[in-house]
């Protein structure tokens, strides 16, 4: 099916097709895992046949190699590589990052336990005595212990109970220790690993994979954002209240049309001079980008955004996300938002191509005061013929995404839903409920596009 899309901005660069990127990405992940496991095959299978302590340690080495392959994959998933972001979307990459991270940690635990048990059986020492000897006598093990401790910290703060208690910025800062932890695991592998002792090719390959991973992080998470921030010189021009605790931040810069940015994208922002400027904040554009302006509309969660002043410098990373016209399949579109999730959809309403009557906006909020950007939405409705439905009230029973007592269904609000592309943005549970309702109404999966406010 042919994608319906808006014209490219002047600064758009050629990008490989998403399908090609997906194939290459999966091949790279499986290929790297296969190469690392192949180092284990000859000595590993030999030790398995011997049974006893050699077999236990062989299983541990296999678990360790697989864990390292997955840990490096986990880092690459969040390296902000533009082609991966465009092909999969950050929502998908983040889910895989979480799943791969916990899987690799479990394998790391298996590696530690089986190695400890294997050495204990082989040497005939008491368990605690052998653990002490492994840590203090084997080369590189102190680095590995420190690296493992950092990974335990990152896993602990990634549990849902801990994440609910931490601000995103603090969680993100602590999460960066995973990079150091993974790096500290490498020395003990090269110095003690049976698969690497005397194997120059294996050592060179492991170095190459580590350096490629580190290089990707430095290039796309450090160098590229700094280069773009320096080139485009973003500054704040206006901070305007939009509702209780909500402000719009208007910014201007140079040659912004040279950025591969469009309505629906979000970026990571740092506002110099404000509290917490060292930590980035993920916010979507709330207006279509122009040659010299960008705008975001956000809830000020104590980060000092309401106290920004004109002329304040802005650093940014991105753009990220797939909630754009690039994924569109149909002429007609339905945009469904809850709360501050209206921001990327308001920008999409401005940028997407559609005729009067071909666009429907459903905006859900708890109270009338929570309906931000209401006047702008009304103006777009008048100018472009958008059907706007404002739904106010507490959430209905069960997993219903509509307000209690709404008295309507998705089909009432969006006639012939299967002929629409759905763009959905809001809290995770609410978004899942909307997508489930759309699927029940017969909307194909490739016409459902969402951005969830979660981390």
UniProtKB/TrEMBL annotation:
Keyword Lipid metabolism assigned: no
Cited Gene3D superfamilies: Nucleotide-binding domain of ferredoxin-NADP reductase (FNR) module, Translation factors
Domain of life: Bacteria
UniProt subcellular location: Membrane
Residue span(s) of domain FAD-binding FR-type: 229-326
Main location: membrane
Membrane topology: Multi-pass membrane protein
Required cofactor names: FAD
Keyword terms: 2Fe-2S, FAD, Flavoprotein, Iron, Iron-sulfur, Membrane, Metal-binding, Oxidoreductase, Transmembrane, Transmembrane helix
Chain segments annotated as transmembrane: 20-41, 61-79, 99-121, 141-162, 174-193, 205-224
Keyword Transmembrane helix in annotation: yes
InterPro entries to which the protein is assigned, alphabetical: FAD-bd_FR_type, Fe3_Rdtase_TM_dom, FNR_nucleotide-bd, MRET, OxRdtase_FAD/NAD-bd, Riboflavin_synthase-like_b-brl
Name this protein carries in UniProt: Ferric reductase-like transmembrane domain-containing protein
Native source organism of the sequence: Luedemannella helvata
